[in-house]
Design goal:
Length: about 120
């Protein structure tokens, strides 16, 4: 129910860092959660990280734990994904999504931002 716009992707060397941003068009803090997903070439979209708006929680895929950090700025209706120690296998299009409620799936994807990590 909100429009999302991702930004911040780019080309980096292995071990480098990027920070992705996802701007929502309305009060995202009224949603249950927002999150980041990614889709690599030939792969299905997979979960990366999520952060709650009405509750203080965050969660991460095992593949990114300890390297990625999700955060939010309520006043800007924006979430971020700080990606450190990037690996070639992190190469993917990264999408931002919303989760309207605890029983709902993530959706409302933006157009995505490309992250490419060279070896």
């Amino acid at each position: 129910q909100v429009h999302l716009e991702e930004s911040g992707g780019g080309l980096v060397q292995a071990g480098g860092s990027l920070r992705l941003s996802c701007k929502a068009s309305r009060r995202a803090y009224s949603l249950y959660a927002m999150g980041w997903f990614r889709q690599a070439p030939g792969k299905e979209r997979e979960f990366v990280a999520a952060i709650g708006w009405s509750a203080n929680y965050s969660r991460y895929a095992d593949a990114v734990k300890g390297r990625f950090t999700i955060s939010r700025d309520n006043t800007k209706n924006t979430i971020y994904l700080q990606m450190n120690n990037l690996r070639p296998e992190d190469t993917a299009v990264y999408y931002c999504g919303t989760r309207p409620g605890a029983s709902a799936d993530f959706g409302g994807w933006g157009q995505g931002t490309q992250v490419t990590v060279s070896s």
